Amino acid sequence: MAVPIPMLIWFDRFDDRIGTLKVAGELVRTEELNGEDTLEFRCREVPANGDRLLWRDGDVWREHVVVRTEEPLEGLCSVYAESSLCELLDDFIEEEHLTARTAAQAMGFALRPTRWTLAYCDVTGTAGCVLYHVNALWALRRVAGVWGGEVTPVITVANGRVASRSIRFEARRGAWRGLHLTYGKNMADCTRTVLEQDVYTALYGFGMGLPLTDEDGRYKGGYRRKLTFGEVNGGANWVGDEDVRLVWGRWNADARQRCTASGR
């Protein structure tokens, strides 16, 4: 939805202040519970990918990170920014087996490799899950789903810059107004946008082909066939997801079978 235009305090990726970024026209914010939180707007100046935008939403501070810009030769720059929680995509969790853990303990494991902390938690009960080779944002949302809580990023500001970043993990955000909106229910009108991106259900992996040389080791021009992993993968040089193939694979009229979107 379009919101009143706030003052966007502009920082670089290292939290050094650049100035303010003035919005030209309207600013649209899209927020999904435990999911998407984005800003879209246009401006005359061009922020860099990774720059941070700090702004005040009523009495609450918000922080977003520029992840995409469209810069025409003439005219305004279009900016797409995501909640600063997106930085958790770059923090990696190798393996954590959570068994009979409280919500606060589980959230602590999800945030451990990050600079974010847990500020508040009122989600009760114990549960368990496995976090294996995932980024911290995926782990955060996994914990929210398993323990049944709702996540709110908390940005504190001191001396005109971000002083700390933390998470509130609550059984329910905000006050109960007697209605919970769920996609497809209790709505007179709704528009769903599906990203126009191809879905690939199998991928081929290739290594570098070795150069062709003569008996003395001198390069003759050209390369041998690229290295594959079929010998250690049952003869197949690709890896795929069978369950996803059944949903997204295209129909091959000649073979009379479902094929993957990538050509299998």
Walk me through the structure.
This protein is mainly beta and 264 residues long. The chain folds into three domains: 2-85; 91-170, Phage tail protein beta-alpha-beta fold (3-Layer(bab) Sandwich); 202-259, no CATH class. 11% of the residues lie in helices and 42% in strands. The strands form six sheets. Strands 1-4-5-8-7-6-2-3 form an eight-stranded antiparallel beta sheet, with no helix packed on it. α1 runs antiparallel to α2 (136-147). The protein is globular and about 75 Å long. The model is unreliable at 251-264 (pLDDT under 50).
Task: Summarize the structure in short.
This protein has 264 residues and is mostly beta strands. The protein contains three helices and 19 strands.
Q: What key phrases describe this protein's structure?
A:
single chain; 264 residues; mainly beta; Phage tail protein beta-alpha-beta fold; 3 domains; 8-stranded antiparallel sheet; disordered C terminus
How are the SSEs ordered, and which strands pair?
Layout: E1 2-3, E2 8-11, E3 17-21, E4 27-31, E5 37-43, E6 52-57, E7 60-70, E8 77-83, E9 92-102, H1 103-111, E10 117-121, E11 126-135, H2 136-147, E12 150-158, E13 161-170, E14 202-204, E15 211-213, E16 219-223, E17 238-240, H3 242-248, E18 250-252, E19 257-259
Parallel strand pairs: 10-13
Antiparallel strand pairs: 1-4, 2-3, 2-6, 4-5, 5-8, 6-7, 7-8, 9-11, 12-13, 14-17, 15-16, 18-19
User: What is the radius of gyration computed over CA atoms, rounded to a whole number of angstroms?
Assistant: 24 Å
Kindly name the structural category: mainly beta
Low-pLDDT ranges: 251-264
Q: Can you count the helices? A: 3
What spatial order of strands do you see in the largest sheet? 1-4-5-8-7-6-2-3
N-to-C span: 41 Å
How many strand units?
19
Question: Which strand-content bin applies to the residues?
Answer: 35-45%
Round the mean pLDDT to the nearest integer and report it. Answer: 85
The H-and-E topology, N to C, reads as EEEEEEEEEHEEHEEEEEEHEE
Task: Work out the count of structural domains.
Answer: 3
Helical fraction equals: 10-25%
The coarse overall form would be globular
Biggest pleated sheet: 8 strands, antiparallel
